[in-house]
Each structure stands twice: as C-alpha cells, then as structure tokens.
Amino acid sequence: MRGVLLLVLLALAAPLAAASRVVSLAPSLTEIVVELHATDLLVGMLDGGERPAALAQVPSVGRYGQIDMERLLSLKPDLLLLWPGSVPAAQRDQLTRLGIATYTADPHGIDELIEQIEAIGVQMGRAEQGRARAQQLREQFYKLRAQYHRQQPLRVFYQVWDKPLYTVGGGQIVSDALAVCGARNVFAELKVPAPQVNLESVLLRDPQVILASDQAQLDAWKAWPQVDAVRHGRLLLVPDKGLERPSGQMIEATARLCQVLDVKAPVSR
C-alpha cells in the first residue's frame, strides 16, 4: 500500500511534461542528476566544491549561497532542482515569483533521501532510472541497518567545527546516518540542523565516540581525559565529506562511517 501511495504522489508531483532543461541549485542535487544518467538535461548548475569532470562544460549560475539570476534566466530552464540551504531566502522568493517548475529536496533521513531521488527521476522523465537507483540504494541501506544494529547505541558527538563549537541536530540527515551505524547523536534532541553547543554540554553527555573531519580538532579533546571517547581512544576522523552531501553516494559514505565506528566500538552488541 505504501508503495502504491508513493507512486500516486510522484505522479501528482510530476510536471505536465518531462523537463528538458534542468538547472541544479545544489551540488548534492547535481550529483543525483549524474547518478540518474540525466546530464544531457542539465543546462546549468550552482557551483560549490569540486566539479565532476563530466560537467566541466555545464554553465554556472553562481556559487553556493548566491545565484546569478540573470544568467539563470538566460538558460531558459523548465525545471529547477532546489535545496533550500544553498540559496538565500530572498532569492528563493524571487525564484517562486518566476513561475518556473521547481522540485525542492530537503531530506531529513536516508529513507526520505531515497524517495526524493526516485521523485527527481520522475520529474526529469527518467522514472525507470529513478526506480532502479532507488531500489539499489534501499537494498544497501537496509543491509547496513541490519548489519550494524546495536541494542545499546553508541553515544556519538559529531563535531562540525570547533571555534565556536558546532554539531548536527536530530533533524539533520547525518544524525540518521549515525543511527544506521548503531550510534546515537548525543544532541539528537536539538532540531536545528547545525546547532552551536558549549563544551560543558558535551562533557555532560560523555560521548563514547567523537567524530570530526580535522585531526587537530580531535586532538584538542585530549585535554578532557574524563570523557569516555578520550579515555578509550575513540577520537575518530570522519572517513570523507560524502556524509554531508545528500545524494545517492551518501549510502556508500555511511557504509564507510559504519566500518570506522565498528572497528573502534565496544565489543558488545
């Protein structure tokens, strides 16, 4: 029944005709277009980070956080792929007034991400590719969740930055990736995507693992040997930045995270 309902919703969400001129307004959405083998439809993209070599000739419509509206309009798109966090609110309002068909993707969990990848396939007239990719990702996702399930999840502090101290909230998709790996975000009760926290609140939660993408940030925690993660040598580097880009590759990034956590985790499950 759930599958039938999803197909109905996808059909209702689809434009009257499949898009033929797509502009992606987030690097993660551009990755999804690539994964769905639909780069022939991509007439523009928002730059942010390293460009895939296959997209070297695709026109830019600005950089992360700022759209060149004149350039975007000159490309005559019939579908915009939007992640709200990549575009300022004022420009999102401006896009709405333009009346261009827009698909907004803002997944808060991996299940939702996979559904949105399938929906984007429908929007671009690549429904078959969308279904196939979604099925592949679901199989990988369910396998990971079963393999790394823990009766007592690991308490994990995921550090985004150190000065000031930022983490991820419970509504952020990275928090769901941690759950897949048998872990629990110690700040899961915070619904802000990237909340600022203080040192005392981290110490109070006594995480068993601290994750960060910078070794110097991890080493700084050694000043607090009373923390479980420090005491047991569980100051771990995030394997790669793929966790922070909600596209299909995030499933593989989550698998790498699970492997890292599993090697250093307490033996009991």
Automatic annotation (TrEMBL):
<protein>
    <submittedName>
        <fullName>Vitamin B12 transport system substrate-binding protein</fullName>
    </submittedName>
</protein>
<keyword id="KW-0732">Signal</keyword>
<feature type="signal peptide">
    <location>
        <begin position="1"/>
        <end position="19"/>
    </location>
</feature>
<dbReference type="InterPro" id="IPR050902">
    <property type="entry name" value="ABC_Transporter_SBP"/>
</dbReference>
<dbReference type="Pfam" id="PF01497">
    <property type="entry name" value="Peripla_BP_2"/>
</dbReference>
<feature type="domain" description="Fe/B12 periplasmic-binding">
    <location>
        <begin position="21"/>
        <end position="268"/>
    </location>
</feature>
<dbReference type="GO" id="GO:0071281">
    <property type="term" value="P:cellular response to iron ion"/>
</dbReference>
<dbReference type="InterPro" id="IPR002491">
    <property type="entry name" value="ABC_transptr_periplasmic_BD"/>
</dbReference>
<dbReference type="InterPro" id="IPR054828">
    <property type="entry name" value="Vit_B12_bind_prot"/>
</dbReference>
